[in-house]
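tool_log.txt
---
The assistant was asked to compare two proteins side by side. It first ran the structure predictor on the initial sequence, then on the second. Raw inputs and outputs are pasted verbatim so the downstream comparison step can read them without reformatting.
(1)
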Amino acid sequence: MAKEKPSIPKGTRDFGPQEVAKRKYILNTIEKVFIKYGFMPIETPTMENLSTLTGKYGDEGDKLLFRILDSGETFEKIRNSKFEIRNQNEFNNSITEKGLRYDLTVPFARYVVMNRNEITFPFKRYQMQPVWRADRPQKGRYREFWQCDADVVGSDSLLHELDLINIYNEVFKCLGIDVEIKINNRKILAGIAEVVKGIEHLNTIAVAIDKLDKIGKEGVSKELTELNFTETEITILFDIISIKGTEVEMLESLKIKLQNSTEGLVGIDELSFIFKQINLPIHRETNQLINLKTDFSLARGLSYYTGCIFEVVAIEGSLRSSIGGGGRYDNLTGNFGLDGVSGVGISFGLDRIYDVIDDLKLFPETLSQGSSKVLICANDSIENIELAPVLQLLNKLRNKGIASEIYSEKINVKKPLEKPIKYASSKKIAYALIYTENEALKLKNLENGFQEELTIEEIVEKLIG
């Protein structure tokens, strides 16, 4: 019987040494900026109770939750149940109570509530871990992917929004990616809903226009028509979200259109504060912010947002997709029994950022080097020489912080360095340290082929310097 070829689930990937080095480069860059702005790290479990996850992301999000099958006794529980299972939801709930985390924000809210007596508010945390969504895999969209989040809970101050925008700007500047940071406010969306059809239709409108980039104006209009929106209501909606001009002009125009919506006007005031106080590069000719743009069509489909919302888009290369997003959520901890705690946060999508940097060829060349800097090899097979001095040499290099290894395999006695040098080159090791019969040491630069005989002290000095 033929064995099935090994494979991995769709939407997941393996990462080799070079890919991991590049991913860590991105993670380290983001983490340094998080720490610089006063955020502290936490981690939460891979799985959460479904009661924690469901109902927090809207109907669309609930459909994308990965559920974890309960242990073996579940079958007996169902078989012996006195209750009839009438639909798919009841069946799902009867066989699973846990799920893989969908994002890092909801688990963070749960963490805050459970640890509220041990943390100091405002609490500023960052978290960098994988999340899972049962989405359709495609280019730049995976079922398992990493998020890098920074959140503040316990403060209503818009100063935190300013910090989070600056974090976005600083991280992408460090990574060399030109981005556009889009900003809107869910209160503005609530005002738009109030003007168009009624504030109770906010989530319906938000979910629909959140798909604008994917299905276009025609697709959104069709979806809203099927949801009993009239042609006049759809026209009013697109007239508002299509407002153009400078940031000041756009907000002034919107203020007129939402003049009868108290909540909408509050949202406009909050955006006005952001643009007045933010310190970002200004375009010389237009006197406008270069990479912070108001977008009244930005909705962020997650239903827990209540204030400013953000989305970051790469604006160069072939992968001009969303690589970050976030916003303010005033009611999330209330779902777990802690009312009156406002929060705001942002997220970086590690995997999409990786794809953008790779597409633009922005990874530092040093990341392509091997983990070892030096390969110790000899003019004879390792089993034919006195090992003690070679191991001492290895320890001296490692004790000085120089990543080193020994070539341990058999060699061709006629061409003793052929296989070691080939091995070192394939691993992108920078130097070969050749140990000769008379215990002389020759250091060979594998990039330019230059070789010189040195003492161990001279070698250490050269490699560290």
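(2)
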Amino acid sequence: MRLGLNVGYWSSTAANPARAQAWLDVAVEAERLGYSCVWVAEAYGSDAATVLGYLAARTSTIDLGAAVFQIPARTPAMTAMTAATLDTLTGGRFRLGLGVSGPVVSEGWHGVRFDAPLERTREYVEIVRRALRREKLRYSGRHYTLPLPDGPGKPLHLQLRPPRAELPVYLAAIGPRNLELTGEIADGWLPVFFSPEHAGEQVRHLRAGADAAGRPLTGPGGFDIAPSVPVVGPDWRKCADAVRGYAALYLGGMGSREKNFYNAHARRMGFEREADEVQRLYLERNYQAAMQAIPVEFLDATSLLGPVDRIADRLQAYADAGVGTLNVLPFPAGGGSGSLDAVATLRAAAEACDKAGVS
């Protein structure tokens, strides 16, 4: 099992230029420590591609990944161009993570209807792969048609020749059908709120998709399960409080009352009553109460909390659950976003990984 770093949304620190710069310096420390990948997220603040381009110039060996590029934000051809450019700039170090986002961002920010996400994802990935192989783009689907049949457009191919025609494609997926699609068409999975003790059913859906495609889910060079996991130390109960705001945002506010994939995931984990309460409080804008309503058992199950020895004990469970890349999401115990805390967290996670013997 390898370690990665997820720097999350750079926009959360960009209001303070010095702090934002220091946070990006954490990626350089991750490379020095031997981490395998740095991932960058986007929602409706900073975009991931620009930050990844900056990190490409600051690093030389560590992989760089989008976690994730939002499917409604870019055409498949634009994503292929961006991926090819980043892979060229990094000498073949780019990993392409994709996700449909959710109805609030897709429709509210990008003006794209959140309909048929599975079918849209399938078509999107197929077009991106064809473009990266430098095929002339001809495609007739429900959501994408290339070229348009009633105009002057003609099939074009990617002018840039990236180092690799087959870039690793990861999907962010939560629901059962989306997990099956991920196992079928992707090279890796980017889960959030991943719990080794609750992952069996999710992995079964991944395997069902892989089986349907006639491809192995495990083995050398195989499928990569790559969760982003909050890591905080050293007092685990106090550390749990540092993660409450993050968990409440996703379980309570990432989606509508009727369609929140993260809330549904918590319910499938057995936290039905608590998930309902968190969502109710969050949508009523009682954010502090929503944070306190997150059960500590949920936080402990989906995070790595506490001193190095406690984290090391938990890491074996992640390896046993099939995790290939565990992406550290540093959370300062004081609730801030200090880069010094993040560097200490990276070093503690690396030490724990060595102690656990899973690296």
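---
observation on (2): The CA atoms of residues 57 and 124 lie 29 Å apart. The chain has two domains: 2-236+302-356, 237-301.
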